[in-house]
Structure formats: C-alpha cells, structure tokens
Design goal:
heterodimer; A: alpha+beta; Alpha-Beta Plaits; two-stranded antiparallel sheet; 2 helices; B: 5-stranded mixed sheet
C-alpha cells in the first residue's frame, strides 16, 4: 500500500511536501500528489505517515488500497 | 536622510543597539498605565501616542507602521504577500478549505505567490501606493512553517526595496528555531498569536500541533505550543525586536483567561496586545463556526480591552485582514494587484518620490495633531463624568471625509473630558449601492453602531438621517472634511453644554453587533 491525497479535499497548502522523507510528493495541477513508487508510508522513518500527520484536512492523506502493502527492505 | 539611509541606519541599529534596546523594552514593560486620562486623548499609549510619549528608538520603529501605531494607520498602508501556505498547527477558528475572494479574514487568500512573484508584487504596490511602508508575511498558513519561502522573500525585498519595513506574524511553534534568522533580516516587528498560557484552555482551542515529525493532541499539544510561544517572545524582546501579541477572544473559552495572557506577555516584554473578536460564521466551516461558538459583542470586547489597558498598550484598530491584504487597514486594494496584473505592470521603483510623498503625509499628520491639541485646550476645566461613543465615516488621513452611504466601516471614538480616544471600528455593508437606499442595509449599520450617540459623516441623505435620529443616533455632517478628533471634541463640548443647560438629558446607549461575513467589494 501507499498513501494517496484526495485531491478534492486538498487545500494545496504544501505542508506535506517538505515533510515526506522519500520526496514522493509534488504539486500537479494545483493540488499535491504522492508518487506511489516512492511512498513507503514512512515505515522505517517515522512512527506515522508524515503527510497525514501534518495535513490540515482530516482523511485527505489516506492509505491507497489499490497498491500492495509496502515492504521495508530486509 | 534618504530613505536608503533609513534602511542602513536600521540595519546598523539592529547590530549595535540590541543591548540598549533590551533596557528600553524593560522600561516599556514596566511602564504601566501610560494614561488614557491626562488630556492627551490618545488611543492607548504605544499604539496611539505621538513621539513625545515614547523613547525615540521605539517611535522610529512604529511611527509609520500602521499595525503598531493607531495614529499611523490613518496615513500609512501595509501589504501582505501570501508566500506561506503551510501550517504546523490546527486552530478551531480556522478552516483552510474555504477560499472566497470576498472573504475577509486571516488564513484566506485568493492566490499564493512564489517569493519571486511576491518581490515583484511589492515593487508594483510600492510604486502605486507611495504610503505603503510595511511588508508583512502572515500566511495564509504560518510563515515559520515555510521558512525557506518566507526568508527568500525577505531576502529579495531587502535588496530591491530597502526602505520597506519587514514584518511577520506567527503562531510561535517554530519561532525559537528562527529568531536569529529573523534578526538577521532586520525584521523588527513580529506578531505572535497567543490565545492562552494554560494548556487546559489551549486544549479547547487547538486540536493538534505538528512538531518534530509528530502530531500532538490535547493538553500535551497546548503545553508544547505555549512553552514555545513564550520562549520565542522572550528571545525576540531580548534582541530588541518589537513584539505584538494577537489574541482571539472566544467567549466562555478564553475571555477571562486573556487577562492572564496579558500579564504573561507583558512581563516578557511584548510591546502591544491586540485582542480580536472571534470570527465564527457557520458558513466558514470552522469547528467553532459549526458548533455554535459565538463571538463577543462590541461591549464585551471593549470591556476586556479596557481591563487590560493600563497593564500595557492595547491595539484596537486591527481589521483582522487577509494574508494577501493591500492598502490602508480599512481598505482592501488586493484586487488591483493580482499576479496577472502585476506581471504585466511596468514598475518604476522611485525611492525619492516615495520619500517626498511620505514627507507630505508627515505634514498632514502634524497638522492633525496640532488641531486636536488646540481644540482640547478649550475643553480644559470642563468637569463631567460623561463618556460616550461616536462613529465616524472616514477614508483615511484622520479626516471626516466619507459619505454615510459609502462607508464600508465606521471608526469608533470614545469622548470624555480627557479628549477623543480611538477605541475600535465597525465593519458594515455598503449601505448605498447604485444611488438608492436599502432599508435592510441601514438596519445593519444601525446595529453595528448602536452603542454610539452620534455618527460623523461628510454627507448623508435625508431618509437615513431621519432613521438614525429615530434610532437615537445623531447624524453630524457639519464637520465634513475636517479633522476627526478636533471635530469630535468640539461636538462633545457643545453636547456637554446642552446637558448642563438642561436642553438635553444624557442617556446611556445599548450594545452593538460585531459584523461577520463577507466584505462586499462593490464600488
């Protein structure tokens, strides 16, 4: 799995962008998006996904079930 | 001294005078009750007073900063650039999702800017509005949660427009980490929003804070925030940076507690305290708006401000402006300076003509103060306990120069034998739109100034005149285009004479409503 940003709720405040340890977040068409190839759900970096922890709108940075669970490299 | 020299002098002062300023700040902090009586008629000592009341170093810093000097706000304009969208805390009175061009409150902007766009905008505005003296970064998030963008903007502007004062406003969470950088850019005015010093109270205002990669909630979050705010305040005042403290008055949550906040920030050297009414219209979608938390009435707000005055300087002229506001505090010219428009503008930044214009403003200002003093002298010896409020329609410059029907706001002065004291302002809808009266709008105006005995205007139509008289508010138009304070004192003198002769009986007025909601920009 990875996290995704629900674009209709994103205020484009950019708070998540610098917090991402994987530089997975960029601005696209006025809102921010997470690159699922880069997102690690912050596993191995922090206790909680940083984008969700700093986001001002609840339930906007959420787990994207379309992707398999991230596996930390052994 | 050229404007360039002012910038250089301030830069030097920042380095050399830090120690001396510490002493000055201490003196100011100890300087209690700088007098709402005593005949000077000033609004509150620091924010309203003239040069004579303040140490020269402080006066030089505040005299053309509209937010730090009540007197300056009639003459000088400021602008905010919205380069800082991210925030590191959540407040129950803030909702970042809502964004409307007509919405006038902090945290809301029409478009965010890059530091480069912001620098261009500052030059464009400074060339168009020569009395624009202050650039602030106030969000729409928290400037210090966006440190690279904020400081890059300061860096660009300090190079291209060195005569403009730099200013920022923060929630304080990240402040201790950035005090040295702030001092390095010669930012000599910093505002911290402090709504509590008790974490139990804070837990009702802040659902969470984000600090060092972790979201904290409840009392723990509020404790962290208050500790960082007070530490940051102390670090700034030690460096001689003037600090204003903003507090949102939330009835039943922190209204009584703000007296404690006032003492706490005063003891740490804050220069000015700005207690603002909560904005909580349900349509803004904030937690407080949705759960029915009310804001204070005009009387409740004034009573709290009055009770803190004497403890320290109180700001009463705050318009709770947007993070992209442009112009005098009571006006909003941001629509003239959209990114599209400024990028197309040819900017000719002329320091000399700005300086010449500002010298003219200073002359006007001196004339205003002299007129007030002269009129005040004629009130000497009058003995009366009567204190009353009047509303004034003004476009700025300290003059009664606005038509009743065109006023977007009224300035409120308290009159007594001590003189005329600015105590606030009331926003109103544009009453007159397209040349015909609208009864509902008139009722809105009356509710907003219902605590006033009279309303001073440059001009007023026959119908609203009669309705005001029926509501017990005297419309006064014989002082059109004259100085506000001088005219108010003259009117008050005549009022007292009429009371003394028994011609009229003095009666107390009721409370008034603090208007919320969208600012209608119809012109």
């Amino acid at each position: 799995m990875t996290l995704k940003i629900i674009s209709s709720q994103c205020t484009s405040c950019s708070a998540c962008e610098p917090e991402c340890p994987n530089v997975a977040i960029t601005e696209k068409n006025g809102t921010f998006v997470i690159d699922p190839k880069k997102c690690t759900e912050c596993i191995g970096h922090f206790d909680a996904p940083q984008c969700a922890a700093v986001c001002p709108v609840d339930n906007t940075c959420v787990i994207d079930n379309a992707y398999p669970r991230y596996q930390a490299p052994a | 001294m050229t404007s360039l020299d002012v910038g250089t002098a301030e830069a030097a002062e920042g380095v050399n005078a830090a120690v001396a300023m510490g002493d000055v700040m201490q003196k100011i902090a100890e300087h209690k009750g700088c007098g709402t009586s005593g005949g000077s008629g000033k609004a509150s000592c620091g924010s309203g007073a003239g040069e004579g009341d303040l140490p020269t170093e402080i006066w030089e810093k505040v005299k053309n900063h509209p937010c730090y000097s009540e007197e300056a706000h009639h003459h000088y304009a400021r602008m905010h650039v919205a380069v800082a969208p991210a925030c590191n805390i959540q407040c129950n009175y803030c909702n970042r999702k809502y964004d409307c061009a007509n919405e006038s409150r902090p945290g809301v902007v029409s478009e965010k800017l890059t530091p480069e766009q912001a620098a261009k905008k500052v030059l464009a505005v400074a060339s168009t509005i020569p009395q624009m003296t202050v650039l602030g970064i106030a969000g729409p998030g928290d400037p210090l949660a966006n440190p690279e963008k904020t400081f890059k903007t300061f860096d660009l502007i300090s190079r291209t427009a060195p005569d403009i004062k730099l200013c920022l406003s923060t929630n304080g969470l990240a402040l201790p980490d950035h005090v040295d950088t702030i001092a390095g850019y010669n930012v000599d005015h910093v505002t911290i929003t402090i709504n509590m010093v008790d974490p139990e109270v804070g837990a009702k205002i802040y659902p969470w804070v984000f600090w060092k990669h972790k979201r904290y909630t409840g009392v723990e979050a509020a404790k962290l925030l208050t500790d960082r705010q007070l530490q940051g305040l102390e670090m700034l005042t030690e460096r001689g940076i003037l600090c204003k403290v903003n507090s949102v008055m939330i009835p039943g949550v922190n209204d009584k507690h703000l007296v404690e906040v006032n003492k706490a920030v005063k003891s740490r050297g804050a220069f000015l305290h700005n207690i603002m009414p909560l904005i909580s219209a349900p349509e803004h979608g904030t937690v407080f708006g949705l759960n029915g938390q009310r804001g204070p009435s005009a009387q409740e707000l004034k009573a709290l401000q009055d009770s803190c005055e004497g403890e320290m300087n109180m700001m009463r002229h705050c318009r709770q402006c947007r993070a992209d506001a442009v112009g005098l505090l009571g006006e909003d010219r941001s629509a003239e300076f959209t990114t599209e428009k400024i990028m197309a503008m040819e900017v000719d930044y002329d320091l000399e003509s700005r300086k010449a214009y500002q010298e003219k403003v200073e002359e006007e200002r001196v004339a205003k103060v002299a007129a007030k003093q002269e009129e005040l002298a004629t009130l000497a010896g009058a003995a009366s306990d009567i204190k009353l409020l009047i509303a004034v329609a003004t476009k700025g410059s300290g003059l009664i120069n606005e038509h009743f029907g065109h006023a977007k706001e009224f300035q409120v002065y308290e009159l007594s034998t001590s003189g005329a004291k600015f105590v606030g302002h009331r926003r109103v809808d544009l009453y007159c739109q397209g040349g015909y009266g609208d009864e509902d709008s008139l009722e809105t105006v009356i509710r907003a100034i219902n605590d006033c005995h009279a309303v001073f205007v440059a001009k007023i139509g026959g119908c609203p005149k009669n309705d005001l008289i029926k509501a017990g508010i005297e419309p006064v138009d014989q002082f059109a285009h004259e100085f506000i304070e001088k005219s108010a004192i003259a009117w008050f003198k005549a009022y007292l004479d009429k009371v003394n002769s028994g011609e009229i009986e003095h009666q107390e007025r009721g409370d008034a409503e603090i208007r919320q909601g969208a600012l209608i920009n119809a012109a």
